Amino acid sequence: MTKIDIIQDVYEKLGFSKKDSARIVESVFEIMKECLGRGEKIKISGFGNFVVKEKKSRRGRNPQTGKEIEISARRVLTFKSSQVLRKALNG
Amino acid sequence: MNKSGLIEALSRKENITEKKAVEVVNLIFKGFTEELKKGGRIEIRGLGSFVVRDYEAYTGRNPKTGKNIEVSPKKLPFFKVGKELKEKVDR
After folding, report:
1. Which pLDDT value is given to residue A91?
2. Are the beta carbons of B86 and A81 separated by less than 8 Å?
3. Disulfide-capable partner of B20 in B11, B16, B51, B74 (CB 3.0 to 4.6 Å)?
């Protein structure tokens, strides 16, 4: 499933034009990206939470050369699925 | 931001009624859930992709009581963040 399938679904079921459906679907993902880009989390009940986590810098190793390297502090995005979704997958 | 925040932002950005925005957002996440239930993969360019991973049964331990417990095989959704969003979050 890609954006095209979602746009088609919105177009068929919600009565928007093809063009509007595409723009609206794009907007949903834009809003989510902006929000996460600000470091804010997104909670979609019944689906899951997208959370930005701060990672401290740590020592790591290049698995190919075995050399020790410093892994810099960074922010990463994690997704925690909701119990409802996990139940749906295992039902 | 939760689901209603996303709905509100979408309604404002696209100048559509909140009722329509609710329908769009619900359709998207219901569509995601249905796709994952079928074992399908979702790929949203710029945002990321979702897949379902199969986990085999294993013997775990209740950390509180120390008792062994049989964990049955399960399916879990997994989100891999897209390149664009990964960079946006880490800025």
Report:
1. 80
2. no
3. B16
